[in-house]
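Example record used in the benchmark description.
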Amino acid sequence: MNTQKFADQIRYYTMRELDNLGFGHFGGSLSIVETLAVLYGKVLNVTPERKDDPNRDYVVLSKGHAGPALYATLFLKGYFDEAFLYSLNQNGTNLPSHPDRVKTPGIDMTTGSLGQGISAATGIAKGNQLLGKANYTFAIVGDGELNEGQCWEAFQFAAHQKLDHLIVLIDDNKKQLDGYTSAICNPFDLVGKMQAFGFKSWRVAGGDVDAIEAAIEQAKQTVDKPTAIVLDTIKGQGIPYFEALLDNHHVRPDEAGKVAIKEAIEVLAEKIGVTQ
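Model output (structure tokens):
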């Protein structure tokens, strides 16, 4: 699979589903597109047919508000059809704003209350370790989410338990709900902090699919400690309008924004070769 093309497809369908809804978490969804493309296009040992296989790899989207990007990915991998994708956040939907493992095929853990997802992922990894399994647990965590104390409790536990099949992907897009992370609660050096908590950790370009894939392969070579890959991303990544928009966490676009979204979708459609 061409991973960059897969990322372009994920970005296109993420924009389509949010445009169909009329509002939503554009910024944080777009910044994890390349990471999802690598996971589901190259790395994960899982298929729609094996979505409940206890020996599969697990993905926990701890930053649950980025669910639309994960849903677009699952659609493209065949977990459900396109009509299901456009039911995002509608009344009675099985595709809620934040992931729900009971409602949506392919979701391994219900998330959305920030901080709790990484704790759940750590529990999954520990359970699989106790069972002697070789599968991996991948947790996608937001930089703003790391304001939560329980994240650091989970990290300390993971390192103490030597969970070398837990790979944490930190989406360092520099913003959270109310502004820049550096202004709200400065995270300082995330790589250094994760190393201090007992992780092997380094920073990679979060928009580079090859760099992300190489980092995950390197993480899999790590023994007796968990890994944290800090993804250097841009909130709204890949869509110039959202990259430039200061308040791009949850967006209810005005008329100019709606035009910009339509134009971005058209550009992506041409790029991936689909007809509007």
